[in-house]
Design brief:
Large ribosomal subunit protein uL23, four-stranded antiparallel sheet, Ribosomal_uL23-like, ribosomal protein, 6 strands, alpha+beta, Alpha-Beta Plaits, Nucleotide-bd_a/b_plait_sf, Ribosomal_uL23/eL15/eS24_sf, two-stranded antiparallel ribbon
Length: 96
């Protein structure tokens, strides 16, 4: 099971990082806080103070096509917001 799927790099997540040294990740829905903490500490070599997790529900989407109205949902996912120790940073753009 791959615990960390990808970092969330939105404007809201970037503002959270600048303001309070917190990073957001999209994680596997079966992973718990201890597994997420160990995976992030191994991958980025940082120490973590706290982890908050939440399940983000999918949105309902509608689209008008030639065949008529097509409805569907975006998939739900689990999000982890990680608070780092003061002075530690994660650089997501270093390995591009």
């Amino acid at each position: 099971m791959e615990i960390l799927k990808k970092p969330i790099l939105t404007e809201k997540a970037s503002a959270l990082t600048e303001k309070s040294n917190r990073y957001s990740f999209k994680v596997d829905h079966r992973a718990n806080k201890l597994q997420i903490k160990s995976a992030i500490e191994q991958m980025y070599g940082v120490s973590i103070v706290a982890i908050n997790t939440m399940v983000v529900s999918g949105k309902s989407k509608n689209r008008q096509t030639k065949a008529g109205l097509v409805t569907g949902r975006t998939p739900k996912y689990k999000k982890a917001i990680v608070t780092m120790k003061e002075g530690e940073v994660i650089d997501f753009y270093s390995n591009i």
